[in-house]
Amino acid sequence: MKRRTVHNEEGWLLSYADLITNLLVFFAMLLGASEISRSRMQQIASQLSGEEPPASLASIQEEIEARIESQGLEEMVRTDLTDEGLKLSLNSGLMFDSGSAIVRTEQEDVLRGMLQTLVPYAERYDFAVEGHTDSTPFGTPDGRTNWELSTDRANAVRRRLSGVGVAEENIRVEGYADTVPLPEDDLEGLSEAERLARHRRVIVKIY
Predict the structure, then answer these.
(1) For residue 34, how many other CB atoms are within 10 A of its CB?
(2) Three-state secondary structure call for residue 166
(3) Closest CA to 115 of 173, 154, 157
(4) For the chain, how big is the Rg over CA atoms in Å?
(5) DSSP state for residue 139 in the 8-state scheme
(6) Which end of the chain is more exposed for a tag (fewer CB within 10 A), N or C?
(7) Which tens digits make up the pLDDT trace of 141-187?
(8) Each residue of 68-108: pLDDT tens digit?
(9) Element containing residue 206 per DSSP (H, E)
(10) What's 57-206's CATH class?
């Protein structure tokens, strides 16, 4: 008698299970990538290729630092490339008078020149202007505190950033008063006055 061949009619389930598993892995990778900042993605791409992507935050940093060095503005502007984006820290102690949100007249051209460096990248990146103060209590008869001072200074820089050609819809303003102090590593070896001055800053973040 000829033996009947038994076919595995459920073999397709194995292929189906493999497909579902691969889809889950794929969507997990997409979700993970969506939570990585643009700055971090550029750093990863640079490490893999050995070259900086065109118009990367790192290349913008190099251009700005070259301008800082050529104009002797090391005490005025500092740059820091982080996973959040490229941060330009403006020394508000030099940019503004104490308790004021009006840019000093002698610093107007310096500030404008630095902000104009960012205009070619305005269509590719967004901007945040952050205002920070030190922890010294500040108050005026009309009720203004460090919160208003930090926000007013950020808005002063935001207006000038918009004035050089960056669309207002691509800029947001954030005032933090003294709630975001600098890490202790950044303040090591400084006097108390220097520590307070370092905390007083306006940051233009490109991300």
Answers:
(1) 7
(2) coil
(3) 157
(4) 25
(5) B
(6) N
(7) 888 899 999 999 999 999 999 999 999 999 999 999 999 999 998 89
(8) 999 888 989 999 999 999 999 999 989 999 889 999 999 99
(9) strand 201-206
(10) alpha beta
In DSSP terms, 175 is beta-bridged to: 131
Q: Whole-angstrom Cα distance, residue 56 to residue 124? A: 10
85-91: strand order across its sheet: 77-82, 85-91, 201-206, 127-132, 171-175
Structure-block tokens of residue 124? 């590719």
What residue has token string 């490109």? 206
Concatenate the DSSP letters of all residues of 60-101 into one string: HHHHHHHHHHHTT-TTTEEEEEETTEEEEEEEHHHHB-TT--
In DSSP terms, 206 is beta-bridged to: 86, 127
Task: Please check whether residue 175 is in contact with residue 150, taking contact to mean a CB–CB distance below 8 angstroms.
Answer: yes
